[in-house]
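Please fill in the sequence for the structure shown.

STRUCTURE ENCODING:
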């Protein structure tokens, strides 16, 4: 196992009717910027619950954060923070609203010229602080509620980039599974697939003898495989919703990835597909993951065998068949919950994705746990995803 440091300071408040805990989590003297999306929280009563809980607080609202949050929108929120002298940010919504909030928290106190520099990974652009933030999460998927990451898009230059800083950990995250009951099926499935792929990016690499992390990962995958059909059949089942929500958080709160290698090639390629073609985040992952596994079979052989055995119960076949079976079972699982897995499902071809390859070439990207996936391999992976 590799050396590691693990420090996760996020207070999780989990369960039914937990939005009313807000006054116990935010100081009454704070002036709050309440960020939210395109209206789901108003339609489904979450907004009312938040305002009721925070009665008497000084609140300025910032609605309109879009899915795949835009840099320009976030910069408008930064202006409001300065103008209104905001000192606490509250995100109410899915991962996009929360990622936008994290960006605003860091950008509002950034001492460099342009906060885009830290998003784009300019080595001179250092985040040295952030405003405090908290969130009420309404969509289990990203793990953003308990991690240091944020993903920001900039359509004007065709970019979608992830950045990370320990300063942007939420101070608290309220996870009330009741809020997830109103999710459209597409978003619910997106959340399951995103969670699945977060686990795979940390588990399906090479073996460093970390059986506990492997068991954590397999536990989350098995839970998803078991609970996903149930939530589709019985979307109002609170316990199923609760288990899926907690699985999403644990998939990307840092724990299962400690001491083990990380892949993240699927995510990096997926972000480019979203930036270019506007597919949902999870839709891109479901296309790219099976192709990455096929392409990297040899490098991932030990873990693929373990995955086949411990997640899919494939024990009776020779090695190549076992690996193919594990990849096929993954595809079948995604398809069974209504998630397509090929570019052609979106009327796209590998040729349509060539600009993604060019972008990774220009950036000199070396992806995957062995950093052996350059733009050339990305082109091959996209062919396998046709
Ligand atoms: O905007 P509103 O009206 O709120 O509607 C949203 C949005 O249209 C709707 N929604 C959210 N909660 C709902 C609901 N509708 C009904 N009932 C509810 N309870 O769902 C739509 C999608 O929301 P969004 O926040 O975009 O989805 P998600 O949570 O999947 O976030 C996706 C973003 O997170 C990034 C992705 O790249 C993408 O930009 N990621 C962030 C990560 C992180 N910070 O660690 C890691 C991930 O890998 C991912 O890259
Ligand atoms: Zn993801």
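FILLED IN BY: designer on duty
SEQUENCE:
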């Amino acid at each position: 196992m590799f050396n590691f440091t693990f420090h996760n300071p996020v207070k999780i408040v989990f369960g039914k009717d937990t939005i009313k805990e807000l006054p116990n989590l935010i100081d009454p003297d704070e002036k709050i910027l309440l960020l939210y999306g395109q209206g789901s929280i108003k339609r489904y009563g979450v907004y009312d619950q938040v305002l009721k809980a925070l009665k008497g607080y000084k609140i300025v609202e910032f609605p309109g954060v879009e899915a795949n949050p835009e840099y320009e929108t976030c910069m408008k929120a930064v202006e409001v923070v300065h103008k209104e002298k905001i000192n606490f940010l509250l995100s109410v919504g899915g991962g996009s609203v929360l990622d936008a909030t994290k960006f605003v928290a860091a950008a509002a106190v950034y001492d460099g010229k342009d906060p885009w520099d830290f998003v784009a990974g300019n080595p001179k652009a250092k985040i040295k602080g952030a405003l405090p933030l908290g969130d009420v999460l309404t969509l289990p998927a990203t793990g953003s509620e308990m991690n240091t990451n944020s993903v920001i898009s900039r359509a004007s230059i065709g970019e979608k980039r992830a950045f990370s800083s320990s300063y942007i950990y939420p101070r608290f995250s309220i996870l009330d599974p009741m809020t997830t009951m109103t999710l459209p099926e597409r978003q619910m499935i997106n959340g399951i697939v995103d969670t699945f792929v977060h686990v795979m990016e940390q588990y399906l690499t090479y073996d460093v003898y970390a059986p506990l992390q492997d068991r954590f990962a397999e536990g989350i995958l098995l839970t998803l495989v078991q609970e996903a059909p149930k939530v589709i059949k019985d979307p109002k089942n609170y316990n199923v919703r609760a288990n899926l929500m907690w699985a999403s958080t644990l998939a990307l709160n840092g724990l299962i990835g400690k001491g083990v290698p990380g892949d993240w090639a699927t995510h990096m390629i997926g972000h480019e597909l979203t930036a270019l073609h506007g597919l949902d985040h999870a839709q891109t992952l479901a296309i790219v993951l099976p192709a990455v596994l096929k392409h990297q079979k040899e490098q991932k052989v030990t873990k693929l065998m373990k995955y086949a055995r411990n997640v899919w119960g494939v024990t009776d076949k020779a090695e190549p068949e076992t690996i193919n079976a594990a990849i096929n079972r993954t595809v079948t699982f995604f398809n069974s919950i209504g998630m397509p897995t090929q570019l052609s499902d979106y009327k796209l071809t590998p040729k349509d994705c060539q600009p993604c390859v060019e972008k990774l070439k220009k950036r000199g990207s070396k992806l995957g746990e062995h950093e052996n996936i350059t733009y050339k391999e990305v082109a091959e992976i996209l062919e396998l995803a046709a």
